Structure formats: C-alpha cells, structure tokens
Amino acid sequence: MDKETKNAHEGENLEEQERSDTGDVTAESVNITQGGARNVKGTHVTLRQAGAQSITADNLVIRQGGVVKARADRLEMLGGGIVFAQTQTASLTASQAGAVLSEGNVTMEQSGAQVLLARGDVTMDQSGAIAMVARNVKAENSGVVFLLASEVEGTVNAAFGPRESVIFGAVAGAVAGLVLLLARLARRR
Fold first, then answer.
1. Do 102 and 87 touch, CB atoms closer than 8 A?
2. Which terminus of the chain has a smaller tally of CB atoms within 10 A, N or C?
3. Where along the chain do its domains lie?
C-alpha cells in the first residue's frame, strides 16, 4: 500500500497531491492538482489540471483534467474530458465526453458527447452529441445526429429524428448482417 492510500486509511480526511503521480487514493476529500492517479475514491474529489484512470465519488469536480472512467452522484466538469461517466446529475462546460449515463438531469454548455443517455432532462447550449436519449431536451444552437426524446424545445439540429433513427438502424443492421453472411461464405471456400 502506497503512502497516500495508507494515510487515507489511517483516518485523514483530506488527501492533496500536487505535481505528482500516485497510485490509488482513498480519502473523504481528495484534491489533485497538476498530477495523476490510478484509482481515486472519496466523497469529494477535485481534479485541477490533473487526470485519473478511475474515480468513484459523491461529488466529482474536474477543472481542465481528464478521467477514463467515473462514477459520481454529481459530476461537474469545466474544460475537461471523460471517456465514460455514470452519474446522477452532470454539468459539462467546454468539455468533451465519450459516454455519459445519467439517472437525472444533464446540462451541457459548449460541450460535446459521443453518447448521452439521461433519464432526466438535458439542457444544451452550443453543444452537440452523436447519439442522445433523454426525457426532454431543451437546446439552443445545438446539434445531435441521433435524437430520441419525449419533447424537444429550442433550436436543436437533429440529423436523424425518431423515425429516421429507426430506419437508419434497420438499414445499418441489414447491411451489417449481409457483410457477416458474406464473410462466413468466403471463409468456407
């Protein structure tokens, strides 16, 4: 067990790292500035110009940092990037995400996501997504390629609405099936 993890397990409530890389960190409150960590667990986790491979937190704040995988009740990201986030609520400002799975609401300002699935509402301003599923979407000057929502308010440019998404999915599935069938036939020869 490294020093940081040991200290956190011995009852320290605050773990701060500046300009260094560390392995695993577990503490009530974790602040990492200009450094990195492998696995981070805490109630309040803040990254400033820092990165982590995996984070589990109640409240996660990322300021100009990056995370591969995060689980947090509340995610707040400013000028950051994340590959996969599972959260209750999320707020992204000038940030990028690979996939965001949210049980609640998501707010995006000048941000982008490859895939965004939200059980709650999504509010977007100058943001975009490749695929989005949400209860309600409120957007200004935003774009989505595939959109599935009960209600859409504002100016969102969807390349594919619900009907077009189903048609596209059916055609893509048929083409993929045909390619796999031809590949199997070619292997048999």
1. yes
2. C
3. 3-161
Which one-letter DSSP state was computed for residue 57? E
Q: How far from chain centre, in Å, is Cα 62?
A: 12
d(CA 95, CA 110): 7
Question: Is there a contact between 148 and 129 (Cβ–Cβ < 8 Å)?
Answer: no
User: Would you place residue 10 in the very low, low, confident or very high pLDDT band (cuts 50, 70, 90)?
Assistant: very low
- pLDDT at 189 exceeding the cut of 90: no
The C-alpha atoms of residue 10 and residue 145 are separated, in whole angstroms, by: 49
Exposed/middle/buried for residue 94 (C-beta within 10 Å: 0-12, 13-18, 19+): middle
Residue 133: closest CA among 154, 155, 158: 158
pTM of structure: 0.74
Strands (E), the chain: 14-18, 21-26, 29-33, 36-48, 51-63, 66-78, 81-93, 96-102, 106-109, 112-118, 121-125, 128-160
Eight-state DSSP code of residue 2? -
Q: Record the tokens describing residue 30, joined without a space.
A: 């974790």
Token pair 């619900």: residue: 162
27 φ, ψ (degrees, to nearest 5): -165, 165
What is the bridge-based pairing of β-strands 51-63 and 81-93?
unpaired
